[in-house]
Write a structure and sequence with these properties.
Elements: H1 2-30, H2 47-54, E1 60-64, H3 72-92, E2 96-100, H4 109-121, E3 127-132, E4 138-143, E5 146-151, E6 154-159, H5 169-178, H6 180-192, E7 198-202, H7 214-220, E8 225-229, E9 243-247, H8 255-266, E10 270-274, E11 278-280, H9 282-285, E12 289-294, H10 300-305, E13 308-310, E14 313-317, E15 320-326, E16 336-347, E17 362-363, E18 370-372, E19 379-386, E20 391-395, E21 398-401, E22 420-427, H11 439-442, E23 456-461, E24 471-474, E25 477-480, E26 485-486, E27 491-492, H12 495-507, H13 527-532, H14 534-564
Parallel strand pairs: 1-2, 7-8, 7-9, 9-10, 10-23
Antiparallel strand pairs: 1-5, 3-4, 5-6, 11-12, 12-21, 13-18, 14-20, 15-16, 16-17, 19-22, 22-23, 24-25, 26-27
Helix pairs in contact: 2-3, 3-5
């Protein structure tokens, strides 16, 4: 009876366990959940990302050109991209597909070079890295740390590697992993979005022409419809645009144009000012000297009302880019050598704002200091670019002599650290025309005047050259260089990403820019300590586990003898 009862009880327990396991399997197949135990929620997608992926109506195909035998750091980046795409597939289902490709897989140099050329023509830029082989040697390898995203016959290239020259390789790779979700979902949203927003470059005040902003225009065209034009006599001409860019004006603004811009801002429009408060003729500098004159645009009162003052000076910074200088004697073959030019500050982007976070250094040319003014509690002002610790200003008008390069700068003279050169203003603005007669300005035109704005945003950058690319004259016609590319140092700075981030931030209604604030903690080993304590930790890691197992075995045998001795 006793054995039968035990057997019956075991059968019941087994049956009950099987039912519980089957029920758990059924629930897990129907209901998806995961628990992210990492401190920074490394594997958790944002709500905005999930929404975009769930609303896809066709297949998005992601081709990642980062595979094969890679250094450890790039393997981590590849794994991070793969993990993110796997997460994308959970919410996008079959509408998210991806493939990892090794562009160097073919051993035939001709075929491999053709593959490189095809990838480059699609918009991905290669980099060369030192890869170690199994025998301990090293060789140079070309990789394309980016992806091509395809949707309904359209393609968008994206770079997935941050390469800030001021940071270490580990920090750059960590920043790249931080930005994987944002870069991928931004491209997917842009390529699948049916409602294309419109932005405009303003003309009519001596602004940069279409070729001089050609590269950033081409980049913005991946996400927006980009127009150009003058205000003329249409009071509502700007109403259709999500943002308006004023790119280095050199001629004064009329009161009518100021009114149109003001009311565009009052009704929720976004303004982006790239304004040089001092005009410098760089062509004259080739002769050894030039002048810097105050750029009177008649907009000081308008910007002052919005809480911004552009000072009539130029910034000098010890952290600066180089300028080519002819060092050969007179009447001899020119010999150009790079020399630091204090008027070309290299700005290290701030890490605490989505616009400037994780960007390469930004190249400014003849920038000015910005002050925030006014006691308006309805707006919030945020500095998004500032100079280094060793900077100062020189007042305009001024004489700029190329011979200044020969003078070694003294740190004690550069006593105005961290000067703002780009300010973001958010909130409710006061109209510059709120206490003024506007009948003469309107001249009979009907308008819905607003003395205070709806909540909106505006960015002011005190360097009009920051979004100007070089234009090369060739036999095939003028060619546009990449924005931020310095043809003398052959280095590309983060200017284009900075401008694009400003536009994205001001027009972002899906809150995707918040993903740029995602931070993965970089846990780098202390290399000097590793070298000093290497033997100690090797002994601990190899012998300690063995010793613990032996001690446990001895104790277990002692315990068994003591328990069963009787």
């Amino acid at each position: 009876m006793k054995q039968s009862s035990v057997r019956k009880q075991l059968i019941i327990q087994f049956t009950f366990s099987v039912i519980i396991l089957a029920f758990a399997a059924f629930i897990s197949a129907k209901v998806y959940f995961r628990i992210d135990l990492t401190t920074e929620k490394r594997y958790t997608l944002s709500v905005e990302t999930k929404t975009i992926l769930k609303n896809l109506d066709d297949i998005v195909y992601v081709k990642v050109y980062l595979d094969g035998d890679l250094p450890v750091g790039f393997k981590k980046l590849r794994n991070s991209i793969r993990e993110t795409l796997d997460e994308f597939r959970i919410y996008g289902k079959e509408n998210v597909q991806y493939q990892f490709v090794n562009p160097s897989e073919n051993t035939d140099p001709k075929i491999r070079n053709k593959q490189y050329a095809d990838i480059y023509s699609k918009g991905l830029k290669p980099i060369n890295i030192q890869a170690k082989d199994k025998e301990g040697g090293a060789s140079e390898k070309t990789i394309f740390p980016g992806a091509i995203i395809s949707y309904k016959g359209l393609e968008i290239p994206i770079s997935l590697l941050k390469n800030n020259v001021a940071l270490s390789a580990e920090e750059n790779l960590n920043n790249s992993m931080q930005g994987v979700e944002y870069e991928l979902i931004k491209a997917i949203f842009n390529i699948s979005n049916k409602n294309v927003e419109k932005i405009a470059f303003l003309e009519g005040h001596g602004e940069l022409n279409e070729m001089e902003v050609g590269d950033v225009t081409r980049e913005l065209s991946n996400s927006y419809q980009v127009d150009r034009g003058t205000i003329e006599n249409d009071m509502h001409i700007l109403d259709q645009y999500k943002a308006v860019i004023i790119a280095k004006p050199t001629k004064p603004f009329s009161e009518k144009d100021k009114y149109v811009l003001d009311q565009y801002l009052m009704h929720g429009g976004k303004l982006i000012w790239f304004v040089s408060s001092v005009n410098v003729n760089t062509d004259s500098l080739a002769n050894g000297a030039t002048f810097g004159f105050i750029n009177d645009l008649q907009i000081d009162d308008q910007l002052f009302t919005y809480g911004i003052r552009l000072n009539p000076n130029l910034v000098q910074d010890i952290q600066c880019n180089a300028l080519p200088v002819n060092t050969s004697p007179t009447n001899s073959q020119p010999k150009w050598m790079p020399a630091p030019w204090l008027y070309y500050p290299l700005i290290s982007p701030l890490v605490d704002h989505p616009i400037s976070r994780n960007l390469d250094m930004i190249w400014a040319r003849y920038a000015s200091e910005i002050d925030t003014v006014g006691g308006n509690n309805t707006t919030k002002k945020t500095c998004i670019l500032r100079t280094s610790r060793f900077s100062k200003t020189v007042s305009a008008p001024l004489y700029i002599n190329l011979q200044d390069i020969k003078r070694t700068p003294k740190q004690t003279e550069f006593n105005k650290p961290n000067m703002p050169i780009a300010i973001l203003v958010e909130g409710k603005f006061q109209s510059v025309f709120r206490n003024r007669l506007i009948k003469n300005i309107l001249q009979g035109a009907e308008t819905n005047f607003a003395a205070e704005s709806a909540p909106t945003k505006m960015v002011v950058v005190s360097d009009g050259n920051m979004l100007a690319n070089d234009v090369r004259v060739t036999a095939k016609g003028p060619m546009v260089s990449a924005l931020g590319y310095d043809k003398f140092t052959r280095q590309t700075f983060g200017n284009k990403d900075f401008v694009v981030n400003i536009v994205n931030y001001l027009t972002d209604e899906t809150n995707l820019m918040s993903l740029r604030s995602k931070e993965l903690k970089l846990r780098i080993l202390d290399k000097p300590r590793i070298l000093e304590e290497r033997v100690k930790w090797q002994i601990i890691n190899t012998l300690l586990p063995v010793v613990l197992i032996v001690l446990f075995g001895l104790y277990y045998n002692y315990w068994r003898k003591k328990k069963y001795a009787n």
